[in-house]
Amino acid sequence: MARGYRKVKFRHADPLASMPWDEFERLMARHYASRGYRVEHSGTGAQTSRRHFDGGIDLKLFRDDEYIVVQCKRENVFEVTHNVVHQLIGVMHTQHATRAIVVNTGEFSAAAIVAAAEFPQIELVDGLKLRRMLGETGDLPTTHWTDDILASLADTRRRRHRSSRNSGRSWNATMVSGLAKGVLAVGFLVLVAYVVIPFVVRTATAPLVQASQRAARPRPASKTTHPVWEPATAGDPAAAGQPIASDNQPARPTTAAQAVFTKLSKKEAAEWDKKNAESMRILEKTTPSLE
């Protein structure tokens, strides 16, 4: 037994006792709507996603000048204490409500009943009264929620198991596909590295290699001719000291005058002879006879 709480004297085991708390809130909203109230479902079991601090209010009932706040409790094991009654007193004044109702599928403690008796605006609806009230309007559930919940949980577990198994198979297929793609990628890189790139390099460097090979080939030595001095003969064009080419003997002038003479043109050579002749005549005139 929980500390500070007392167990109920009679524990209900009907479909209403096994109903989930959010479905119980919606059941009470439908019940009060069938009795002519405009209902605002403000509790956590509302179908909208709007959630805010409402001071424990699950339903707001509007009809004519009435504004009633309702708190739904699904306590089937322990009694609901007087703390709920004291909380609703403050909420009712804060909300400017005309009345407040606490609906419980189980029982209230004696202190809660005494506290509610001091405030006529607060109404406590325990499990027995609730079942009579729902039975009058035909809202009392007949389906045992425990069996449905267990079946729903079992079905959920089966779906999750199938989903996890399918996800495992999908992961295996993805892994195999990834490995195959990796092998293909590696093979493509090897092909590029060992076939394509060398081919491109050879194609690009072939003209350079051929040019370097042509430049490195030895060229045959060219034959050179050298002038050779030979004695002049009558009627020979080389009588004026012209050199005669020979393949085996280089040109070697016999005297310095001949070396200089070879560099002169025909006109210059004639002029040179003329000057030599004049020089010889002057020498003959100025030189005494040795006789």
Q: Any overview of this molecule?
A:
The chain has 291 residues and is of the alpha/beta class. Among the domains are: 21-143, 3-Layer(aba) Sandwich (Trna Endonuclease, Chain: A, domain 1), CATH 3.40.1350; 236-281, no CATH class. It has seven helices and seven strands, in the order αβββαβαβααββαα. Strands 1-2-3-4-5 form a five-stranded mixed sheet, with helices on both faces. The chain has a two-stranded antiparallel sheet with strand order 6-7.
Gist?
With 291 residues, this protein is of the alpha/beta class. The chain contains seven helices and seven strands, in the order αβββαβαβααββαα.
SSE string:
HEEEHEHEHHEEHH
Task: Tell me which CATH architecture of the domain at 21-143 applies here.
Answer: 3-Layer(aba) Sandwich
Quick one: overall form? rod-shaped
Q: Stretches where pLDDT falls below 50 for ≥5 residues?
A: 49-53
Q: Which class of secondary structure composition applies to the elements?
A: alpha/beta
Strand content: 5-15%
Whole-angstrom Rg: 65 Å
Strand order of the largest sheet: 1-2-3-4-5
| Distance N to C terminus | 178 Å
Number of DSSP strands? 7
Number of helices, counting only DSSP H or I runs of 4 residues or more: 7
Roughly what percent helix?
A: 40-55%
Describe the largest sheet. Answer: 5 strands, mixed
The CATH class of the domain at 21-143 turns out to be Alpha Beta
Give the averaged pLDDT, no decimals.
77
